Amino acid sequence: MPHRTEVAHTPWAEVAESIEFVPDEYSHRTLPEFSAQEMLACSQEDIELLVDAGLPCERRPEGRFFDTNDLYNLGMYSGKTRTQPELAFRMLFRFAGRPVDGLLRPKSWNFRVALECPECPEAAPWHFEGPDVARFGGDVAGVTVPEASQGSAEYAATVTVTGARTPLQSAELRNTVRDYLDAGYRWQMIPVAMQFDYELVHSLGATSCIAASLFLAERFRAAGYQANVRRGWFCGVLGGALDLPHACVEVTDDDGRVKTVDIAKAQLAARLAKNTGEFQELCIGSIYNKVILSTASGDAPLSYHGCGSQSPVQVRADVQPAR
Ligand SMILES: [Zn+2]
Question: Does domain 12-92 sit in CATH 1.25.40?
Answer without folding.
Answer: no
